[in-house]
Amino acid sequence: MKDVCNVIKKPCLTEKGISLQELHNQIVVKVDPRANKVEIKDAMEQLFNVKVDKVRTISMHGKSKRVGKHFGRQSDWKKAVVTLSEGHKIDFLEKL
To answer: pTM of the entire structure?
Structure first.
């Protein structure tokens, strides 16, 4: 991955993600499926000007969906749980 803007797709604003952010200073984001932990760490540090301690990645499988008599499937995706250093913070809900 060459461009850091293409590594981070969007934040996961779920109840679990928000509680991780408040309690453990961790951010949950959707990332490019081809990105590795080093690229995710570099992208977070460059885009948001924070210090990253640890990155954990999870490959998520797309759900099966049904519309009428037709069956389909959502795309597979990857999410990352990024642990920020003490004193660093990103608040995605503040901008909304």
So the answer is: 0.87
